Amino acid sequence: MREKRQTIQKGLVWEAVSEATDHPNAEQIYESIVRTHPSISRATVYRNLNMLVDEGKVRRIKVLGGPDHFDHSLGKHYHIQCMDCRNIGDVDLFDSLDLTTRAMDLHGYELLSYEIVFNGICPDCQIKRAAQGQ
What we know:
alpha+beta, two-stranded antiparallel ribbon, three-stranded mixed β-sheet, flat, 14% strand
């Protein structure tokens, strides 16, 4: 992880990610910035997001069937994705040490990192499904 120079644009992207209460995707981050800084381009936002990920300041969350999402919380935790609305949330479940130790013991790997994304239906989408009779 190489630290690159801090620019105004990178600061805006970092601020948008760090102030988000959810796990926005790049387009959502761009939309939140362009409201107050209309001259910023999508390419600038995407490029700076990638730099922040490369520098280890932001976590990229790869999800099924949709764009990557971003998280400013770097501590060990898991994520859950709603399969209807595609929103991402945090899950603090169990001691990750047992899970990672088992993975290393069973397969002989030196564990460097891991990502776990649970899939389900969020409470809001459950209500919508019930209202539609699904």
